[in-house]
């Protein structure tokens, strides 16, 4: 029996860019408050929809910050053998619920407003939308470098990119209302933003469910991994292969490797770990090596 561990980093790669996340979070939170206050005073559903999107993004950014902080703390209980890396996954689940709730509320309000509602003021939409676009562009510049190194930061970068799209929608709504005098453009743009947010919530929700359900990592085919392991010199069979994602960027594997009688287990472990890391991005693998004559180990059915 042998074990080979490619240890995941003690801290998310995003921890090096924590100050960028913090600065972005502060700007987005300030923009959220501005949009919320302006939306209520200007009676704009489009701006309220984008403010709701901002609220979900604040939660996502805070989750990224909390994730990097918690992940850096050592477990003193001795019970969390994988650490607390999944804190960001649970926080992402909360963000999904917020995004869905915002989308449904905006849809309800859009239907409720059919037939008359307070006049929407176009000027605040254009001004606040422009401010939001500037804030989002600055935030994207802050997070761009970190997005190349960390999935955590990349997720925050994509959130800000989506915010920029929402800001453009708010500006378009303000311009259309100013040009046509038709307030229903506000509801149309609001519904468009709500649908955009809902689609993103569903996609993010699928990722959360996949991680919590311990599905194979996205882009990693278990059969390809089994075939690649089985093709290494000295390995006769592979069974009890399990692949899952601990948290963003941390993929884990376990497997039993059956080897020939005169095969070096040390060489097999080194080659298997190197292959899993280079070909599949799996840096933490627990591998059990069994000689071909060993018959007591039975492949599990789960």
TrEMBL record:
<feature type="domain" description="Cation efflux protein transmembrane">
    <location>
        <begin position="23"/>
        <end position="212"/>
    </location>
</feature>
<feature type="transmembrane region" description="Helical">
    <location>
        <begin position="184"/>
        <end position="203"/>
    </location>
</feature>
<comment type="similarity">
    <text>Belongs to the cation diffusion facilitator (CDF) transporter (TC 2.A.4) family. SLC30A subfamily.</text>
</comment>
<keyword id="KW-0472">Membrane</keyword>
<keyword id="KW-0813">Transport</keyword>
<feature type="transmembrane region" description="Helical">
    <location>
        <begin position="54"/>
        <end position="73"/>
    </location>
</feature>
<dbReference type="InterPro" id="IPR036837">
    <property type="entry name" value="Cation_efflux_CTD_sf"/>
</dbReference>
<protein>
    <submittedName>
        <fullName>Cation transporter</fullName>
    </submittedName>
</protein>
<dbReference type="Pfam" id="PF01545">
    <property type="entry name" value="Cation_efflux"/>
</dbReference>
<feature type="transmembrane region" description="Helical">
    <location>
        <begin position="155"/>
        <end position="178"/>
    </location>
</feature>
<dbReference type="InterPro" id="IPR058533">
    <property type="entry name" value="Cation_efflux_TM"/>
</dbReference>
<dbReference type="InterPro" id="IPR027470">
    <property type="entry name" value="Cation_efflux_CTD"/>
</dbReference>
<dbReference type="GO" id="GO:0005886">
    <property type="term" value="C:plasma membrane"/>
</dbReference>
<feature type="transmembrane region" description="Helical">
    <location>
        <begin position="125"/>
        <end position="143"/>
    </location>
</feature>
<dbReference type="InterPro" id="IPR050681">
    <property type="entry name" value="CDF/SLC30A"/>
</dbReference>
<feature type="transmembrane region" description="Helical">
    <location>
        <begin position="21"/>
        <end position="42"/>
    </location>
</feature>
<keyword id="KW-0812">Transmembrane</keyword>
<dbReference type="InterPro" id="IPR027469">
    <property type="entry name" value="Cation_efflux_TMD_sf"/>
</dbReference>
<dbReference type="GO" id="GO:0005385">
    <property type="term" value="F:zinc ion transmembrane transporter activity"/>
</dbReference>
<keyword id="KW-0406">Ion transport</keyword>
<keyword id="KW-1133">Transmembrane helix</keyword>
<dbReference type="InterPro" id="IPR002524">
    <property type="entry name" value="Cation_efflux"/>
</dbReference>
<dbReference type="Pfam" id="PF16916">
    <property type="entry name" value="ZT_dimer"/>
</dbReference>
<feature type="transmembrane region" description="Helical">
    <location>
        <begin position="85"/>
        <end position="105"/>
    </location>
</feature>
<feature type="domain" description="Cation efflux protein cytoplasmic">
    <location>
        <begin position="217"/>
        <end position="292"/>
    </location>
</feature>
């Amino acid at each position: 029996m042998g074990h080979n561990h490619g240890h995941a980093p003690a801290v998310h790669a995003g921890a090096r860019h924590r100050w960028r996340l913090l600065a972005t979070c502060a700007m987005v939170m300030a923009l959220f408050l501005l949009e919320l206050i302006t939306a209520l005073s200007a009676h704009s559903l489009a701006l309220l929809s984008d403010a709701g999107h901002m609220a979900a993004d604040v939660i996502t950014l805070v989750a990224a910050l909390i994730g990097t902080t918690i992940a850096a703390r050592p477990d003193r209980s001795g019970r969390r053998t994988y650490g607390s890396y999944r804190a960001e996954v649970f926080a992402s689940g909360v963000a999904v619920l917020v995004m869905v709730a915002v989308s449904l509320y905006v849809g309800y309000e859009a239907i409720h407003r059919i037939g008359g509602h307070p006049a929407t003021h176009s000027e605040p939409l254009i001004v606040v939308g422009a401010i939001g676009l500037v804030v989002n562009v600055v935030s994207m510049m802050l997070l761009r470098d970190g997005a190349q190194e960390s999935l955590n930061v990349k997720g925050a970068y994509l959130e800000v990119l989506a915010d920029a799209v929402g800001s453009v929608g708010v500006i378009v709504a303000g311009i259309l209302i100013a040009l046509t005098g038709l307030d229903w453009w506000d509801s149309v743009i609001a519904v468009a933003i709500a649908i955009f947010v809902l689609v993103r919530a569903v996609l993010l929700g699928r990722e959360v469910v996949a991680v919590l359900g311990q599905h194979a990592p996205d882009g990693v085919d278990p059969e390809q991994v089994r075939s690649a392991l089985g093709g290494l010199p000295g390995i006769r069979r592979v069974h009890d292969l399990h692949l899952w994602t601990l948290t963003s960027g941390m993929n884990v594997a376990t497997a039993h490797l059956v080897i020939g009688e005169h095969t070096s287990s040390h060489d097999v472990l080194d080659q298997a770990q190197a292959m899993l890391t280079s070909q599949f991005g799996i840096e933490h693998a627990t591998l059990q090596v069994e000689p071909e004559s060993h018959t007591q180990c039975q492949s599990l059915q789960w």
